[in-house]
Design brief:
The complex is a heterodimer of chains A (307) and B (206).
Chain A (H helix, E strand, L loop, with lengths): L9 H11 L8 H12 L51 H28 L6 E7 L4 E3 L2 E3 L16 E4 L4 E6 L3 E5 L4 E3 L2 E2 L5 E15 L6 E5 L3 E5 L3 E6 L3 E8 L2 E5 L4 E5 L3 E6 L8 E2 L2 H13 L5
Parallel strand pairs in A: 9-10
Antiparallel strand pairs in A: 1-5, 2-3, 2-4, 4-7, 5-6, 6-9, 7-9, 8-9, 9-12, 10-11, 11-14, 12-13, 13-16, 14-15, 16-17
Chain B lengths: L7 H7 L13 H8 L3 H23 L2 H18 L10 H17 L24 H20 L3 H12 L4 H8 L3 H22 L2
Classes of the chains: A alpha+beta (307), B mainly alpha (206).
Chain lengths: 307, 206
């Protein structure tokens, strides 16, 4: 069977050259000396532990290019060291951890549960900050009537699917440090916190959400679309989901984004936008467009955070 | 341009690490003494392979701490089974296999570090590489850091294949038994990895 190889692209050649020209890392002298001593010292050998040393018949085959045992004919794994991996010696410290580990883990979990219960902010209550337009809002598919500005909105809670009408822009205030905007014709789950973690999750099905956070904002907010996962820790950002894909516009702060189709992780710097298309293709970073920048600027400047 | 082997200069940098030219570095007689745990021979063995193992470990882990952990574990394993070494055979592929297994196992452990992206993407002013001076040194250091970070963003197997191929200068036939793949699969893995690296570094180093 003949093998078809395509020529390397210029950027691939460049990447290869970069790897080959990486400078060598100098190991620390004390590490080298300590390891050297351990390696050479008879006390570090396993001569007294024959059960842990590989038997002579399982001698690691050090030369795959010359040894028939590592050739591909016959059993594929016949000569692979995986089948004769050396077991580690019984370690008293490790044994102690095996015993103590579960107890410590249980104690840590208890402490975390108490901490979460009392100290982790739970975004279950939202207030309406402003509503512009006809005020058509659906929560879990049912129309709801927005309350007055600053009043609690019982129907709004984490994990509820909120949808705005074509003439309605809805701004919500979460606790005291997250301003969240549904632009017209947007459908997204309102962020809800995981029960035992400082993490807010939101699913954006379509439309555009904009948000800005107060300096004291603590959790990590995850906005998920079919193409991308956007991680916000403190910033002003818009996430747009449309027929093209998902566009992330960062006005300030930094936002981590994962292209779910390709597994690429990126950090989008302020003033940049990035598009992840539905087929997984992605653009280079681009400057924010004037209108996007202006809207996000207004959102950030319009937020008045309490001390 | 096909995917040629590294230049002779590059391969020679590998010194004892290169599979092809390793035979002359430690004689069968020396390896026999190593197998008998002769302290002097063990010192020679350690001095011959320490730097190469450390460099590979550093490329794989991306951190000094990770490289030290991996290197230490490799020599511990070698130390345990060194008594079974065959003096007629080159020990380097076997040591790389240990590196690969330990690296893979470390990534499966619960304390595995989460993969990171190549970020932030400040474009580096590296169209012209200053050859000397503090600014040039700083820029080259930053460039190496970004390349290392891009390398770390690759899936584990691709990272291993890239390191063995482009940093250690091994052929696909030599890499295949180390990573337990066929040469063809190794080549495909390398192609995917270098394509991903090319995309990433194109943005970072433009």
């Amino acid at each position: 069977m003949t093998e078809r190889r395509r020529p390397m692209r210029p950027e691939e050649q460049r990447a290869r050259d970069e790897i080959r020209s990486l400078p060598e890392e100098t190991p620390r002298d004390d590490f080298r000396m300590r390891l050297r001593q351990q390696f050479v010292s008879p006390s570090a050998s396993e001569e007294n532990q024959p059960s842990d040393a590989p038997r002579t018949s399982e001698t690691p085959d050090p030369s795959p290019s010359t040894s028939p045992r590592l050739r591909r004919s016959g059993s594929r794994r016949a000569g692979h060291p995986r089948s004769r991996r050396v077991r580690e010696e019984p370690n008293p410290t490790r044994r102690r951890w095996v015993v103590l580990g579960p107890s410590l883990a249980a104690a840590a979990a208890l402490v975390w549960m108490v901490y979460s219960h009392f100290f982790v902010v739970q975004y279950l209550d939202w207030q309406q900050a402003t509503v512009v337009g006809e005020g058509e809002v659906l929560v879990d598919g049912k129309p709801v009537r927005p309350p007055g500005p600053g009043e609690p909105w019982p129907e709004m809670s984490g994990e509820r699917m909120v949808q705005t009408g074509k003439d309605t822009e809805l701004t919500l205030l979460g606790e005291r440090d997250l301003l969240w905007v549904y632009t017209p014709q947007t459908k997204a789950k309102l962020p809800g916190i995981q029960r035992w973690g400082p993490r807010l999750d939101c699913e954006l099905e379509g439309g555009e959400v904009r948000l800005t956070t107060a300096p004291c904002f603590r959790p990590t907010l995850i906005i998920t679309t079919p193409e991308a996962e956007v991680r916000v820790t403190g910033t002003t950002v818009a996430v747009i989901r449309n027929d093209e894909g998902t566009c992330i516009c960062v006005f300030e702060g930094e936002v981590g984004v994962t292209n779910k189709m390709r597994g690429d992780d990126r950090m989008i710097p302020p003033g940049k936008r990035w598009v992840v298309r539905k087929d997984g293709e992605q653009t280079d970073f681009q400057d924010l467009e004037g209108m996007e920048s202006m809207k996000l600027s207004m959102l950030r400047d319009g937020a008045e955070w309490e001390d | 341009m096909q995917d040629p082997l590294p230049s002779s200069e590059q391969r020679s940098r590998s010194g004892p690490g290169s599979v092809s030219n390793d035979g002359a570095s430690l004689s069968p007689e020396m390896l026999r003494r190593v197998a008998e745990r002769d302290p002097e021979a063990l010192e020679v063995f350690f001095d011959t392979y320490f730097d190469r193992i450390y460099q590979v470990a550093f490329r794989l882990s991306g951190t000094r701490e990770g490289a030290e952990d991996l290197t230490q574990e490799v020599f511990l394993r070698v130390q345990r089974s060194v008594g079974t070494l065959d003096p007629k055979r080159n020990p380097w592929p076997w040591m790389l296999t240990i590196v690969h297994n330990l690296f893979r196992d470390s990534l499966r452990s619960p304390s595995r570090e989460k993969p990171v992206g190549v970020a932030p993407f400040e474009a580096l002013e590296t169209r012209e590489r200053p050859e000397s001076g503090p600014e040039g040194a700083l820029l080259q250091k930053e460039r190496a850091r970004m390349v290392q970070k891009a390398l770390k963003s690759l899936p584990d197997l691709q990272r291993m294949v890239i390191v063995l191929r482009d940093y250690e200068g091994l052929s696909h036939q030599e890499i295949a038994p180390i990573v337990d793949l066929s040469p063809m699969a190794t080549r495909k893995c390398y192609s995917r990895a270098i394509a991903a690296l090319g995309r990433t570094l194109k943005e970072v180093l433009q």
